[in-house]
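User: quick one, sequence for these tokens?
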């Protein structure tokens, strides 16, 4: 039998080509999938970094160290736009807006990635309120030691507004003088017939609360004397005599680096307007002598406070030792608390005047307040 030598078509080439196409498609698909997986992972990581940057700025601006206490008493509206940088090269921008007294809206926008290339942005917002120090002000003057009131001095427990300040209507008054024991051995009023140098509701309040340490050294949950002194914006060495305390402005900005700058309470000089919203905590590390000048805020004295020369202060004054005024004395608007740790005698002679003012107290305490996130859902993602 003869075998035909005629060639017959085969399938090898077609199968090979189809296999090449299929393998190429599989490789292309795998490459595409891996690229997409890489991009998704990269974008997820960058979004996480952007969120971290946003939270970093949000948490940083609300710390005691970074919070600007002048915001507490500023007018409503946008107060600041602050840039921050994270350790991994991220950039964050925080905007602080005051909505009303004691309430702020904060937005924080975190950005990561090079100027050219993949980038990510994340935005968060929060509502922040103020943790305001609390005082047990029992009278225009509260003391647990002896008190001597004479000359033309005057204690006024009726609530008074402060001239030139944006004060609400006056509220209920306090006693002119509050102390644990008002017997003749503890209260001396030479030249003050029938207590005509004291007014209030009542004039004299005898209360055991005036004898408690907590009245003078506790300022609300978790806030003690040491906490408040640690927050001081001005620290004065023991034994210092300051003359002519007053506001200081440099380049149109309140110069808080000057130790004698305690804000602008009188509002009588257009050039010192930037210091009107400056309510510092002033901490004297021992005895302090003030003669002349004016200030506002919270004055904390570790020792005795002596005032001469018509010095004026607006806000709470808390003295661990005794308060002594003479000559033209001093004028206090807000309230004075003298703890008398050694039960010394407080002496108010000359024309010293202490007026109770809830407006001066609230403004000064708000100026020293620290931020805290509102209860409930204060934080939200804004994208």
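Assistant:
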């Amino acid at each position: 039998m003869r075998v035909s030598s005629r060639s017959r078509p085969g399938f090898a080439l077609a199968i090979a080509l189809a296999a090449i196409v299929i393998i190429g498609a599989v490789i292309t698909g795998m490459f595409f999938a891996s690229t997409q997986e890489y991009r998704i992972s990269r974008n997820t990581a960058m979004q996480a970094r952007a969120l971290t940057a946003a939270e970093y700025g949000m948490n940083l601006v609300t710390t005691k160290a970074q919070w600007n206490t002048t915001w507490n008493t500023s007018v409503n509206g946008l107060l600041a736009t602050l840039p921050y940088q994270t350790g991994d090269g991220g950039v964050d921008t925080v905007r602080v807006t005051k909505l009303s007294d004691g309430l702020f809206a904060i937005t924080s926008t975190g950005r990561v990635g090079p100027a050219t290339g993949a980038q990510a942005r994340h935005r968060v917002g929060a509502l922040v309120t103020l943790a305001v120090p609390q005082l047990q002000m029992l009278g225009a003057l509260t003391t647990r030691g002896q008190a001597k009131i004479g000359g033309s001095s005057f204690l006024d427990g009726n609530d008074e507004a402060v001239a030139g300040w944006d004060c609400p209507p006056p509220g209920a008054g306090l006693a002119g003088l509050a102390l644990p024991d008002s017997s003749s051995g503890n209260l001396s009023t030479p030249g003050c017939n029938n207590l005509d140098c004291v007014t209030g509701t009542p004039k004299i309040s005898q209360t055991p609360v005036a004898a408690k340490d907590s009245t003078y050294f506790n300022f609300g949950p978790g806030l003690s004397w040491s906490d408040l002194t640690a927050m001081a914006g001005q620290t004065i060495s023991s034994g210092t005599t300051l003359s002519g305390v007053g506001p200081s402005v440099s380049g149109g900005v309140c110069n808080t680096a000057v130790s004698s700058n305690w804000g602008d309470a009188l509002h009588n000089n257009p050039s010192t307007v930037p210091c009107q919203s400056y309510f510092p905590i002033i901490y004297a590390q021992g005895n302090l002598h003030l003669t002349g000048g004016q200030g506002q805020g919270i004055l904390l004295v570790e020792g005795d406070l002596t005032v001469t020369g018509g010095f004026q202060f607006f806000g709470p004054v808390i003295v661990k030792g005794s308060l002594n005024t003479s000559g033209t004395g001093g004028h206090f608007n807000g309230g004075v608390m003298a703890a008398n740790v050694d039960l010394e005698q407080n002496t108010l002679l000359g024309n010293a005047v202490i007026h109770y003012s809830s407006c001066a107290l609230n403004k000064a305490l708000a100026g020293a307040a620290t931020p805290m996130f509102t209860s409930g859902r204060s934080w939200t993602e804004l994208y």
